[in-house]
Design goal:
By secondary structure, this protein is mainly alpha-helical. It has three helices and no strands. The chain has one domain. It has helices at 5-16, 27-47, 64-106. Helix 1 (5-16) runs antiparallel to helix 2, helix 1 (5-16) crosses helix 3 and helix 2 packs antiparallel against helix 3 (64-106).
């Protein structure tokens, strides 16, 4: 229904505030992954008719009974998906930092 809104919200926030993040965190990597996932999920939801081009745009919002289910889906699927995405990004950042650190130790000091 609307699980894509969680990674989309985080992608919007990190894109808006990307200059606030230190360069070593590679926030561009995170944004690329978050936007890619958000766009892919949006396309999937459109293809299944869960998002339509007329108000209220998300079909679950047209029926008040479905609204609670939509919020539950965001909490049970969208948030864990976003947490997993963030964890994967952190693993990439840490691995990159370790690889660069190992390369700096191997290279001669004056080269």
């Amino acid at each position: 229904m609307a699980c894509y809104t969680a990674p989309t919200a985080v992608a919007i926030a990190t894109t808006v505030f990307r200059k606030k993040f230190p360069e070593k965190l590679h926030i561009g990597w995170f944004n690329t992954m978050a936007w890619g996932g958000a766009i892919a999920l949006t396309v999937e939801h459109v293809s299944h008719g869960e998002i339509v081009p007329w108000p209220p745009f998300i079909t679950a919002m047209s029926n008040p009974a479905d609204f609670a289910a939509m919020l539950g889906e965001i909490a049970s699927i969208g948030v864990p998906m976003t947490v997993a995405l963030t964890a994967f990004w952190l693993v990439l950042v840490i691995a990159n930092e370790r690889v660069l650190g190992a390369q700096e130790k191997k290279s001669p000091k004056g080269a």
